[in-house]
Amino acid sequence: MQQNSSVSPTNYRISLEPDLKTFRFKGTVLITINILKSTTEIILDAVNLEILTCHLLDGGSRMKLKFELNNNKLKIISDKLEQGKNEIEIEFTGELNDKLAGFYRSKYEENGKEKYIATTQFEAADARQAFPCFDEPAFKTTFDITLIVDKKYTAVSNMPVIKEVKAGEKKSVTFATTPIMSTYLLYFGVGEFEIVEESYKNILVRGVTTKGKSEHTAFSIDCAKKSLEFFEDYFDYTYPLPKLDLIAIPDFASGAMENWGAITFRENAILFYPGKSSLSTTQRVAEVVCHELAHQWFGNLVTMKWWDDLWLNESFATFMAYKVMDHYWPDWDVWTQYINATVFEGMTLDCLRSSHPIKTEVNNIAEMNELFDEIAYEKGGSVLRMIESYMGKASFKQGLRKYILKNQYKNTEAKDLWTALESIDNKNILKLIDDYITVVGFPYVKVSKNRLEQNRFLFGDSDDKTVWSIPLHMRYVDSKEESINLQDKKMILSSRQPLITINADYGAFFISHYSEDELQIIGGSISKLNSKEKIGLIHDLYYLIRFQKEKFSVFLNFVNSYLKSEKDPVVLLYLIEVLDFISSLKGIENVQSCLRYFTKKSLEITGFDPKKSERTFDTFLRSMALSCLSQLNDKEVVEFLDKKYDEYLLKPELLHPDLKTAVFQNAVWSHPENYEKIMELYKKSNIQEEKLKFLSALTNSKLEVKIKETLNFCLTSEVRFANVFYALNAGAKNPYAKEVVLDWMIHNWDEFGKRVGGHGGTLLRRFVKIVVPICGIGNEDKVNKFIHENKIPGLEKTFEQIWEELEINSKFVISLKNNG
């Protein structure tokens, strides 16, 4: 953190003039500051900026100040800056970069012509690339923005336009003063935007896109209006800005960014095409919009003091988004999806020795971006679900309302939230909260008859002595329920009744390790478990065998003995995901017959073709089963998908959106001659969702030469760099592509670094996380060399994690071979 204890900004008056031909911008910033005690220097953040002049404004006089720009710090020097209100004016220039950070340019095509927009991405610490500032979340202040642009362009910022003045080929666009807010939430956008407008109460809600796409924001706008309605009621606090923009950005590193009143999205996370978008895309768009709207309260109105409490933003947005979806789309059964998408994902990272606490120390800028991971989002969101369950929904909501009301427009720390929650409920929640927020890792609980024992869940032996306060919600064979806290290393239950679960609804964040005798009892009463509990049981067994705390035969025997008659699509979908992952690991074949059985059984339940008004999980299960059986070269499925592909070529509108992934992937997998046609379709499509399906299908080839061709194609201008992940993800799952993908990633790593500005970021983290732990099996020496030769600031922790994951997977493969 900076040492500016003697200075506090109260307003920025910023004027920027971007040039979308030279990709430069010039600007001035007038910073009103309070000097709390006399000083001789003020330090601001400034990155990739050229500082032209710096003046102190005192009444009618302008006094030139000395300045130094070193190590991304702008030091302003004066003999003596007196206590009180002061104004500093700085002139500067900068680049509209192509690194997806700061003030950057994004390219798109319109009628075959290349065009650009200028846009911003400031979180976590990149406002300093657009103007000199105190670029920390605790320096909240107001902003007055003016953008000077070509008159053909539309300018967008956080607040509505209050004045527009034309001068020749230019115009000056001035926006209303923002509320008090942090620099990372500021937004500037300039381009030939197309805008559609709706309203919620007195709030203007707009969809902002490049030309020809604004009509496809209708569903997102509807989601935003629903979210505003829900959150205003839930938090008992009215959305405080007069407008809300949803802005589709062609080049965008993450899913979306919650800039206050001007939320930005990657196009496939906001644009919805009725009749063309799949159910999974529909839900993804809804989830992203609801997530970003939750931030307008949790993050924007109330903001963490420093990035060690990032989870206060992201965990709550993750959790609260599902509340909105559950309220308006109950048929989606989102809380069951939450178990897989959020709880299990949080455990995936947190079971590593190289994990970190939810609240973790952040010492420098390079460490910040790496914190936007499964701990801040998924583990944090899972813990909040557990805390709400423990407190009760009404008390939890009352505590959040109190927290927001007390801390509106302020900065907070975790203790402020805990104090608000603790004040509502007389239950002692602080121990529970402290254990899961400030301690790295999570527990697993061994169950044998009426004896319980907890340990940290890690691969191999551990001397970790951590003891968690674990809320157990138990159910017995006789349907009796009991809730207790396991606060000691070991415990003996008073009841002698057989248990069927110690984690009802999979509501708490831990893994259950039942003895073989207990598993037989549970298996015999499997019908008494609900969907959440069944997938939780499968997950825990799977993790126990993967981490070699249980024999693989125990897992396979349980599946074959007690799940063969399962008809619940929720359970079948997750079971197939697990079996597919195991069977896809290098050299593993002994689960393929099991996988084939459950995928065939699934299609008997769902049918091959989608039906009107079918259950959500039937849709997901069918798609998964078809994709798996295609890779297993099932004749009936291949023939079905071939027929659908032929029909698609004749009449694209005949192919149901929820079949596209399986149909396109099968086209390349089963028939290499279709590769060129899929490539042609990719190039012709102007729908991002569809393009990504084609791109993934291209990496699904069995031919090494075509896999290499696809990967090299990903580095051309035809593929947005932010979308390369989709090709890598498909390739990492393709048994014919794993080694090719790994080699290609290693070979092009320097090029990747250049494209993100030579520092670690969201995209590079995603690349290595998907490739190394799977594709590195059998190539450990190659991976080890790559890791040690590519030290990139901001990816140190990620490299530790991928190496540990690779070691676990490699040893898992060896254990399966030895027991196969």
Layout of SSEs?
Elements: E1 7-19, E2 24-35, E3 39-45, E4 49-58, E5 61-64, E6 66-70, E7 73-81, E8 84-95, E9 102-110, E10 113-121, E11 142-150, E12 154-157, E13 161-167, E14 170-175, E15 188-191, E16 193-200, E17 203-210, H1 218-235, E18 243-249, E19 256-257, E20 262-266, H2 279-295, E21 303-304, H3 311-328, H4 334-350, H5 365-368, H6 375-391, H7 393-407, E22 411-412, H8 414-424, H9 430-438, E23 443-448, E24 451-456, E25 470-476, E26 481-486, E27 490-492, E28 499-501, E29 511-514, H10 516-524, H11 531-546, H12 552-562, H13 569-584, H14 592-606, H15 616-631, H16 635-650, H17 660-670, H18 675-684, H19 688-698, H20 704-713, H21 724-733, H22 738-747, H23 749-755, H24 762-775, H25 780-789, H26 796-818
The gist of it:
The chain is α+β, with helices and mostly antiparallel strands. A hairpin with a 2-residue loop joins strand 13 and strand 14 (170-175).
